[in-house]
Amino acid sequence: MSSYPYSLLPPDSDNIRLLRLLPNEDEAAPLHCELCNYSLQKPGPRTHLYEALSYVWGNQCETLPIYVDKKRFLVTVNLHAALSRLRDRSFERIIWVDAVCINQENKQEKEQQIQFMAEIYAQANRVVVWLGEAADNSDQALEVIRVSGGMEPTSSSNNKMIQQAIIALLDRPWFRRIWVLQEVAAARNILIHSYEACPELHSLIPSVTYLIKGAIFRPKYATIPGQASLNIRSLGELIDMYHTREATERHDKVYALLGMSSDDPTVASLSPNYTVPWEQLFERLIKFLLCEEIFVETQYDKEMAVIKSKGCILGQVSSVKSDDTENVNIIFTSKNTAWHSGSKIEWTLQASAKSIREGDIVCLLQGASKPTIIRQCKDHFAVVAIAATPLKESGSFGLSELPKSIAHFPRDFLLVWDWEKPLGESQEEGYEALAKSVQTAEFGDHSHKATRTWNVALILGDLEEYEMAEGRLREAIEGCEMAIEEEHPHKLKSKYSLTPLSWAAGNGYEARVKLLLEKDSIDPDLRDSQFGQTPLSKVGVDLKDKTSRTPLSWATGNGHEAVVKLLLETGKVEVDSKDNQGRTPLSWATGKGHEAVVKLLLETSKVEVDSKDKTGRTPLSWAARNGHEAVVKLLLETSKVEVDSKDD
């Protein structure tokens, strides 16, 4: 912004520059200032006698001159207005102002100075907030807020014009700026300026209130090598709370929160470095918050990431009560934990940038130490809170028990974390565009979408949302049929625990099963990771599940004649296979009275018609016991049954 000839700050030290704002009785006189070096070392029990300015730069294309060491220096119109208002008629004022005190053209200096910002604001005698010039009754609005903070509201607070003025005031850019958070969090004494009005405020909007209200009781910041931190919250919590705030550079959405974080940013290479591309910084952040092995895809021009990970469902949000925190009631549905399905717990969470809603899903991604709260968006899930951390929790178990109680992560999660748009339909277009850059040539468009939809259905099934799951399953089947006409339908395989093939067969969809079986690339003997079932499990080719039932056994028991025929035609099934009860496919078909299926089995000439199960019952005794006269007749016609056979 300016070509001012800065002198270099001493290296490897905590030296900063301060701006000496010279007095002038003439309010219209040009602003004259001087820069001086200052050391933050050995602060002692007292704060330093300088003020730190918290403001919004404003439009960088609209500038006005000030004079620094008698040299012309261009600043934004908003900063010019702030300095004009702060200039005293008789006494010089010592201020730290980022736009002037940091050489903005020197990236190395900028990266170093950013790491001192928490310390700069914490040690300042006072933090001065500049909201901008008075407009739209902002002075009255500030006064009403100040009075309301200390006593019963006055009648003016009910005045519609004043209410509108307060809304307009709180909509000013300062309240949306991400660096503001650290500035007010570090402050021990805060002064708000807006033209003539300068009330001291302790209550504005929830996210700033949380940081301002304890300013005078702020504990001493902690220091790690090269960085001062206020140790307010973990980085994951801060990101969840504030990632929708505005910043001139995307990097600052991360760097502005480091000074408040209780985490060491050097562990994940998150220390300020503006030469690191945004997409790489975003990826590092996500892996730091979740797990280093997780798959993350980002782009240089978007604040959106696609995350792929194994995980498990913990439960679902049943109710939410919000104020400056969110009280979230969760019903656990997980069968993978030591907790019982249906157990309830209440978490009190700090209010997040994206509000948690009833119906949101709580999951744990493999390798993560904290749960993630997500929301269904058609064929993927949107991240609501990346690292949910309760301030308080009530129930029979706690968050600390989570990681050690879960050993199995059966589901594949596809998550989208979008910092730019609110949750909802607006994410769909952005996701589709980013997904195209993620998917590889081995996925056709339809098979890719069908796989995503299928996996969503399985997750909904874990939540016992069966009606919604069925709808997604049908969409996946339709997508699978389209994929068959394209390429590589074998990619829709059982790493997602079940496949379109298994569901189509299980529900007797003959045409769909036939289409899938006709593809040479389909492996009907793939087992899933959770229950040991094959793609044709529950009906449909011959590997046994945990009860030793084969797909043919399930198909015959369910009476799916066409599917049984398709399976027999593969030539890969053992027609007389016995399960744990000693029952064969013929036994199941006769017991259920499925006449057409019994005919198909008898026509193979591969069945032992009089085979006994573990209770001594034969297919004939099952059919006779259940009153299936037509099936009894078919069995007698074989002349291979012992009519007087007795069971146990």
TrEMBL record:
User: What Pfam families does this protein map onto?
Assistant: Ank_2, HET
Question: Does the entry feature the keyword Nucleus, yes or no?
Answer: no
Question: InterPro entries of this UniProt entry?
Answer: Ankyrin_rpt, Ankyrin_rpt-contain_sf, HET, HetReg/Transcr_Mod
Q: Give the transmembrane ranges.
A: none
Which regions are annotated as ANK repeats? 547-571, 581-603, 615-637
The Heterokaryon incompatibility domain covers 50-183
**What UniProt keywords apply to this chain's record, in alphabetical order?**
ANK repeat
Q: What is this protein called?
A: Related to heterokaryon incompatibility protein
Provide the taxonomic classification. Eukaryota, Fungi, Dikarya, Ascomycota, Pezizomycotina
